[in-house]
Structures are given as structure tokens and as C-alpha cells.
């Protein structure tokens, strides 16, 4: 039996919100990843099955390799449809905030959500959640926001309303946020949850293929360039990093999602405990930073101290507003960081 780790009070509060709502908007963070899209669509399918009117909104474009999911074509990008999203938010009586802990992670959409009159519930697994929602379900020990969405549905007795499509979404979210269950997935409950999802008829092997065998040719050529030309290994510091400018990305016809998971690859080098990716944003004048680590080395602390960010112990990120040369200097200082 799956342990009910979400408190009874939180489950009752969320159940009441789900019971009472009619028009729901589900939002998640900028540059939505597999967990963001998986948790959002999983909850969307559940609430839709219950007869609710539901919209999923993301701040901007999300990766092509996630568009196989049922109803992914119905996701609305705020940066393209601002007036439409504002109308949906104005009419909403519930906003579900998934896989983020503070409004700034939604960028401009964050102001719209904070100012909305609708009730708000946060379902998240990041540290230090901001108090801008009426109900906050925050468990940093969870593998993913998708796991928490399942636990809520399970905890309020809603499995009958979880469709096969919703189960596929939740599995995809859990799978991507754990690297195919290779990290942050030692809780035995995770595999009991997977068993429940399998009972819905999902094909987990096909889901993995849809996610990980669905990249562009450009991604593989870019990957070769990164590993051969750009990767810097600092062996005595047990670290590695690489940088990519917009010009370099354009050489390989880069699209959102092509760099998914690449920052993890240097961790496969013997002795490397931390990997850092620097990538110029193709939309705004800034550098996007990803930090990954193994064991007890705190990627989140490195992101916080050097890159204006934060995150999980072994997976974090941030942003820099400077030249790439300056960003590399900061990264070299970060590699020398002793937490």
C-alpha cells in the first residue's frame, strides 16, 4: 500500500478546492520540462474527467519531444496568447500552480497569477516555497511534482477519474525528473505508484521511447560538438563545464529541448561530481545555467551563490546577465567553491 505522505489537512483542503471549482487554469514554470508538462497534463486529464473546464498555460515554448502527450496541443503559451490567458485567468475560480515555488519562475505570467482573484493551490517539490497560494502542498523529498499530483489524486480517492492519458503524463513526468529513475528515486512508494499507473494500461517502454528517442538530427550533431569541442574537465576539482553561444546553437538548427539532459553527461566521467552548462538564451539577453551533481555535493548551493538561482541538492539552475566570457569566469570560481 502506498504511504500517504501528504497530510490529511492538505488533502482535505485540496479536495474541497477540486470539488468546488468549475473553471480551472493550470500553470507551470518557464521553459517547462517533462515534469512540468507531465504534472500539468496529468492533473488536466483528471479534472477534465471530473467535468471541470480546464486550461493549461505555460509561460513560453516547451520542447517538441513532449508534444506526443495527449492534449499537449491544447497547451497555451502566455508569450503568444497574452489576452487569451488573461481572460481565462479572470474567469477561473481555481489556479493550480505546479512544479514551481515562486512567481518569478513564471516570469511575466507570475504577475498575472499573483493578481488573480481565483483560489490558488501550489503542488511542488522545490525548497522554500513562497506563500502566494491559498493551499501549498510542498514536499522537497518527492521525486517530482508529477509524483505529488498522483499522491493527491490517490489520497482523495480519485483514482477512478485518472485516465490512461493522465497516467501516461504522470509517468512521463516522474521518469524525466529522475533520469529514468536513476536518481532521487529510492523511495519504494515510487514503484508502487508506477504499478498503479501500469494498471491504467500505460506502456512505460513506449513512453520512454517517445521521450528519449524523439530528438532532432541537429541535437546529435550539437551533442558531438559539445562533447568534443566545448567540454572542459577540471579533474583536480572533480568538475566539468561547457558553454554555448547563440551563434553556436544556430549552427546546429537548435530548437528548445535539444540540450535536454546534456548537462548530466559529464557526470559519467570517472571522478566528476559536478557539471555546469552555460547557454545563451535564444529569446532574451541572458545566459541560462544548469548545475548537476552527485552524492551529497550541493548543486543548489552553487546555483544560489554564483548563478542567482537554486533548486534541488543534485539538480539546480540559474541565470546570468553578462557576457559569456564573464560567465565562464564565474563558473571557474564556482568550481572552486567549497560548501
Question: How would you explain this protein's 3D organization?
Answer:
- With 339 residues, the chain is an alpha/beta fold.
- The chain has two domains: 8-212, inorganic pyrophosphatase (n-terminal core) (Alpha-Beta Complex), CATH 3.90.1640; 217-335, Diaminopimelate Epimerase, Chain A, domain 1, CATH 3.10.310.30.
- It is 39% helix and 17% strand.
- It has twelve helices and twelve strands.
- It has a six-stranded parallel β-sheet with strand order 3-2-1-4-5-6, sandwiched between helices.
- 45% of the residues are buried.
- The mean pLDDT is 96.
List the helices and strands and how they pair.
Elements: H1 8-20, E1 23-27, H2 34-49, E2 53-58, E3 76-77, H3 82-91, E4 94-98, H4 108-115, E5 119-124, E6 135-138, H5 145-155, H6 164-177, H7 188-199, H8 204-212, H9 217-230, E7 232-234, E8 239-244, H10 246-251, E9 274-280, E10 287-293, H11 299-306, E11 310-311, E12 315-320, H12 324-335
Parallel strand pairs: 1-2, 1-4, 2-3, 4-5, 5-6, 8-9
Antiparallel strand pairs: 7-8, 9-10, 10-12, 11-12
Helix pairs in contact: 2-5, 2-6, 5-6, 6-8
